[in-house]
Design the sequence.
């Protein structure tokens, strides 16, 4: 089934964004999504930020949700990396990003 999904022959059963949108709109919920747009690494496993599918999803979700950045682990030590990640999300949406989600363990390690 996974191979069929990757070949676009079968709908991904884990793609629940349509349902999430329906529930959010029906319940008039304030919905937030936070995207990890770092370059990846041993502590950050994410989809490459340049992938058209991810860019399209971010733009699609913006129609009903607040979009924020989920800073990478690396960005905790490299301010330039955080700036780059936020800039990438700004460019995708064409608007400034004002929300962020952090992992508590990043603050504990310091």
Sequence:
């Amino acid at each position: 089934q996974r191979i069929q999904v990757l070949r676009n022959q079968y709908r991904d059963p884990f793609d629940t964004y349509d349902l999430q949108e329906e529930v959010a709109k029906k319940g008039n919920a304030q919905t937030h999504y936070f995207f990890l747009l770092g370059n990846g690494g041993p502590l950050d496993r994410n989809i490459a930020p340049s992938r058209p599918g991810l860019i399209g999803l971010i733009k699609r979700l913006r129609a009903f949700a607040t979009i924020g950045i989920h800073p990478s682990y690396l960005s905790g030590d490299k301010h330039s990396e955080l700036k780059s990640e936020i800039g990438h999300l700004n460019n995708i949406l064409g608007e400034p990003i004002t929300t962020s989600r952090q992992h508590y363990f990043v603050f504990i390690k310091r």
The first helix runs from residue 2 to 6. Strands lie at 32-35, 66-69.
